[in-house]
Amino acid sequence: MISPPFELLSLPNVSVDKLIRKPICVDRSNFHIGVSQSSVTTVSLRPSRVVGAFSVPPSVDITAVATDGKKDAPIVVYATNERKKHFLKIIDTQISQQLKKEVARLHFFNGCFVAIQSDNTMEAFDAEKLESKWKRAAKKGLSYKFSAMIDDGVCVVISSAKKHFVLETLAFDESGVRELKVVEIPLECEVGKFSYSEGVVYRCENRTIQLYNVPDATLISQFDIQGDDAIEDMIAMPNNNICVIQNSVLSIIDCSYRSTISKCELPSGTSISLLSYSPEAETIIAASAKTVLGFTVTPSSGTLLESIGHGVAAANPQFTCGHCDLFPSLIAKNSFVPTLLQNIKEAQEASSKILHALEAAAKKKDEKVFLKVISYLKGDSWEQAQPPSETVVYEDTDRQVDRDLIKQITYLVFSVTLGSTTLSYLPFLPNSFAIYLLTHPLFPAGEPEMKDLFTWLKAYPQLYRQAIVTLSSASPEDILGGLLSQDEDIFHDAVLRLEEEFGQQQITLAIQSLFNRSTDPEELIQVVDRLSKSPDGWALVAPFVDSLGLLAWDKANLDKLQNRLQAQLESIQSAVTTNRLISELFMSVEIDAEDGKTISNGEIKRRSKKSQETDRTRDEPKFVPKYSVETLVIN
Amino acid sequence: MEASSRWRVTSSVGGRFPGVDPVFFKDRSRVAVATALAIKIYQLNTKQVVAKIPIDGFDISQLYLTSDESTFYVVRGNGNVDRIGVLENSSVRLSFSRKIAHIISDLESQITAVVQAPEGLGIAVLGSDNEYDEIHFEKHADIFALSHNKEHAAFAYRRAKDTIISCVNVPARVVTKVNRDRRTHSIAISNKGLLAVGAPTGVIDVYYSKGIRTLKWHLERVQALFFSSNDDYLLSGGKERVLVFWQLATDRQQFLPRLDGDITSICSNTGNTLYGVTLANKQLLFLSAIELTSRLQVAGTKAYMAKNPERERRKRKKAKAAEGMLASDFTTQFTIHPGTRSVYMFSDMQTDEDSTGPGCQVQIYNPSRDEQEGVFSVAPTIQQGKVRKEQKLPDPDTTCLEFTHDGKYMITIDVTPPMPVDNLMSRHDLKVNLRFWKQDPETNKWVVTTRVSSPHGAGKRVLTVCPSASSSSVLTASEDGGVRMWRPDESTGTWSVRKILPAFNLKSKAVQLAWSRDSSVIALGFETSVYLIDAQRFKVHQVVPNILASRVRGLAFMGNYLAALSKTSLVIWDIVAHHQLWSLGLEMAMNGNRLMTVDPQTNEMALVVNYWTNEYSLQSKVLIFDAASPVPKAIIDNATAISAIRHVRGTSSYYFISTRGVISILAGAVAPESANKPDLQSTLSTLYVESKADYDDMVLDEQVDKVLNFNSFDKVFDGDSTNLDALFDKVMTLIAS
């Protein structure tokens, strides 16, 4: 989770542009930031307060800051740009060293500060006196882009040229630099932004995120982020997470699962740049106009569960609507893959043809084309398909098609667009088309766009009842909604489906989630009243009474319910006794047709026992119902 | 077998034991046994295989060793004969004018053999140039027996109520007829022409020239009869699993303790010092005739398969339904121990046509050593074999077997069907047991630590067991979709239920479970729906939109993706991005989950597809998919159907078992990169050692780039600066530094 931003440091009379080079150095739960024309300030993140500041003249731009990392009295070195001259200085001292080029980044290792200059020159300085210890010349044609210390004395440096960028893994020591690995990676577009964490270099360009392994620079992963806007800024975090800004939204993305773990929407028009991340303080440091901000991040568990449904990677449409039968490819001699690809392509073309035809028909309000789809799904070829003469439902023998095709057709019929939850059911369509869809096992129930389906269908009682009876993957909450319907048939079907499909605990949980304190108690009492009168609704009375507790029940209502139930129980009991007596009577006077003798007492007992056994077998659990076509269609 | 470049079948072992009699070498120290994949020659005193000659052991009916012990003849069920040299690996198909049922003897280029024809059986001398000299032909004969010295043969024509038996003296070409007014199941003939007939009722009749002698001990049909070479003893065996020695002179009997399976055949070496007993549970036992102790036991794989592919083939041929995907369940339970990599299979103990379940025996087979490690019983049963009404007592059936991720615990489910023999109130009750086992470190035997009776409630079947990939927890799911999480108490080893997900009100056989690699998400497939469950809170986190057009057959996590196998399709669902990646139409029989496995390192899925060709032959392909594409990364052809496939933990390999019981190892030639990826520290250390220190240019650069300004010389004038030499030294030091 990302907290709302909080102010760490105000930047009076300066703009965010002065922090564009990101002159920041995070040291445990503190950070040192160089604000051009103002100061080098040390800020504590927990608690958030300014620890100290070292002023610089108004003519000085600070380009980089670094510290030796000591807990007490650390040496803080900063690089400046003063009237086109470049210096390295230690705060609170007069020690300085002049350099040829602007310092882009400072790193500390083993008593030395390494200044990486904009032309890729590297020079090491003694930490106390800033005396030069060694220097590596710039590599021609390369300009510095990014660097990060990845281990004690080991640094990854990224420089770019016109058509490639170079990822160098360098080891610093007392005498100079060792090149551990240098890899050149070709560029097809802009070089983009870089960040590093836990052995991975992250690169973002436009909407693309790339992950490179360090030091061999192999591309581990690459994905495009959904949306039209480019990524404005990015910073890497531990556990394969990155923080990105895209369209004024700060998001933490888990690159393992390619999902957004959490988001924080910034006020519209706010432009911020990400400066650094402090793992100790679990805080992202960012700069907005005139303010340095902090965003506290609650560490994620890094589990798949956290990422479910929060994917950021754009869907690859390559195989959408490409469902085809595998068998022709299996028996095709020596050409499995070409046959499979050809079949996928043909399936996609067929789906595309149907969808185009349906879109055109929707505009013309031509219902015949829609009904043709049913015949096609029943197995006819699209060209020869004719609208069926009667209402039909899905059967196992129907054509196996891609789920995306059924989804697209459903969305077209219900005019569902992404992000929209309004129903605009095409009124010209006959119900038979919607009935077929509602019986199809691939009906996209469960999609976020279809979450209000049952609410929409209430306006069409026949379809609503159909959905309650046959829609697969319907939740108990959806079916419970049917109990509120005044239509007796819908109420009865909802009761039957709840009893047949869902366990007592599931129903209880669904009642608790669906009905809450805002529900009208009278409405619930009415449901229980109807259930107790219904011949099939008895089993649902108990969960309703239990799960609603004191929410709906007062003493008067409970007494009323008890009296009514008691009366019904007594009448059932007396009916059963009467029935039993009548059947015993019939058995005792039954005459054997062949020999004309009355049957013996033993035989009466045997038959009585058999009838009791028959009663007992009625309590056996129900198996998955096999609906016939007649029972599937609700007329 | 062809394999894509990265993948290849490195070895094939096991196979169902063909059940043909072994061949004894004259020196009595070696014996040749035909297995499914090779003729193995065992040294009897060391019990080691000393030679292995590859053959296709399918459909083999006899293994014959020539008199000079240089060549094997392999007689096939279809009457063909292959000749293989003992020291060669190549076989030659021999051409004879008649179909051979059994080779009796060989002499140069001629053989004396029992020949088979549609109208009966006979004995003839056959030459390679279509020579055919018929000694005797018995119309309608369906079984035969040969004496140990090969001089006498017997043919039986078995009818509904009586039998006509012909005894042939082969050298003399004299035939004696026996009309028997009772049914016959097995026959044997001695070196002196004595005839023994075993009846389905268990009675053995020995036919002497003067009359018939009846031997009664067996209660069930006598399946195997054998005379010792001196005619002193008659050996018999059957469903009682007891080898009975009848001393014909004294009328005394001797019994060998009950064996592992029904006795189907008995043979011996020339001196009658060693008996070979073939058992119905696909194993061969060699017994010392003197000590009556086991000298060697040879067994193939005994994996139980719900249906016989051969029966299905006949059915299809009859229905003229040639091509098509597989409709029947030829799968088998096949679990690999994560530590030892031994294979655990439900053992097909019986050959009874009426056996309906896998029973409760589990075979442990070691593919690397190509031998059976052991057989153990998951549930208590009548080990001694059943006779008469006892056969109505059903054995418990094992339905699931899994291991925890570290292989420390084994989890089994056994179901005892209702007993039809008693008219008790409990006769409809189904007994379900969930057992947790731990291996005894001393004996290496599995010991039950916890038994849970009716783990999901009375009478509810447990259909699937799913262990966690990262902890000792285990999930079970019942036929009503209820899920329970079980965890052990490490101090006592006892298991208990920790979390419960409520069940549905329906019952279905289509219930599947999968647990994500990080153990945070459980996927439950029930009928045509898939639910994602929060493993921590044990509540449904999300109902996956309808992705299955039919009943679920298998579920597996492939990283971010869920591979869902249904009766009619394979669907890859991106659970993070909430959309379908692709789907393919296929036909998957029950227990389809056994034909799908995922390598958790690479997230690649191996899927077995069995299919019928237009020649009514059953073939299969192993398809290796990654989630991104429906186009397989590799396709491995197999000439037979495959019953199960499993990934071998810690490797990039898969084991699969064919319907003939052959275990093949499918190895990825290139190990997955992520599997052995070194950590950053060690990589950097290696690179540092390999890197060359080249600082010369740096010093030069430093000299060139040294910047001197007027402030640089400030220190020169510090202290005593009157001495010119000292001043010069200071300037030089400054420049040099």
From TrEMBL, chain A:
Residues 5-285 form the Utp8 beta-propeller domain. Residues 345-634 form the Utp8 C-terminal domain. It comes from the Eukaryota. Transmembrane segments: none annotated. This is U3 small nucleolar RNA-associated protein 8. It comes from Wickerhamiella sorbophila.
Automatic annotation (TrEMBL), chain B:
WD repeats lie at residues 215-256. One of its GO terms (cellular component) is small-subunit processome. It comes from the Eukaryota. Keywords: Nucleus, Repeat, Ribosome biogenesis, rRNA processing, Transcription, WD repeat. InterPro entries: Beta-prop_WDR75_2nd, WD40/YVTN_repeat-like_dom_sf, WD40_repeat_dom_sf, WD40_rpt, WDR75. SMART domains: WD40 (SM00320). It is found in: Nucleus, Nucleolus. GO terms for molecular function: RNA binding. It holds the Pfam family Beta-prop_WDR75_2nd. Residues 361-635 form the WD repeat-containing protein 75 second beta-propeller domain. GO terms for biological process: positive regulation of rRNA processing; positive regulation of transcription by RNA polymerase I; rRNA processing. This is NET1-associated nuclear protein 1. The lineage of its organism: Eukaryota, Fungi, Dikarya, Ascomycota, Saccharomycotina.
